[in-house]
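sorry for the late reply, my laptop died twice this morning and i had to redo everyting from scratch. anyway the thing you sent over, i finally got around to it. pasting the sequence first so we're on the same page, its 270 residues, then the predicted structure underneath. double check i copied it right bc i was rushing
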Amino acid sequence: MSFLGATLAATSVALFVLGVLPRSRVAARLSALGRPGTNLFGRLRGFRVMAPATLRASGLSIAIEQVVAAKIALALVGALLAAVVALLVPIGPLVIAAAAYGGFILPSIVVERRAALRRAEAERATASFVEWTHALVLSGRPVDSAVMTLARRGTGAPLVDDVLARVADLYTLGAPLQVSLIRESRNDALGSLAHVAERLERAREMGLGSISVLEDSREELRSAARDRLLRSASEVEGKMTLILTLCYLPALALLVVIPLFLTLLAGLFG
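ok and here's the structure:
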């Protein structure tokens, strides 16, 4: 058992180190130029444990194979810790399997949580982007010029700024602006920005003005933001009740209920 535990510990530490070490650009380039069979560790890319768009949205400078290595390492660590506890407490094999499963899904939870936060930030930045674009177009600027101006200025959200930077580079090389914005937004799973770009492209093809499209998109994004705020406000009461219950109920029991019970018990038998 000790030999097996030492082997699992060494394996988990080695996989964890391989998972967290950043890849150098030279190594990544050599790996891309090499034959597919020369990099055995690169075969971990074949495991569909996470969508590439989610990993890109998280902003973590790691690859899929590093996520897989971290998941395997943490699964081994969880199983090893549960096995050590099982030597002292009879917890059973199901708890060991549950600990391994928890370690396996922990990296995915962290990455998806970070990606969700950055996408929520991107949604707010998209609303600001539409507001600013509408203001520039309303002042007489063409929509392409307004989008390029905002692409150079930035919105403050890394996901949206990366998309706009790539779109600006493609537009400089001669690619259509709205088409590039649609494609890049879809690649990064920015649905609101892609929807706005699709409506602008449809208006351009039909010869319609972009002011009405931007006004409709602005109102829709404002309504969506209002709904999100209302949902957040509706959850405050339940969270506050839970906090008050967890914080004050034990203190109330210790300071009031238990002394009162002991006093009544002493009077009853005294």
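The radius of gyration is 28 Å.
thats about all i looked at so far, will dig more tmrw
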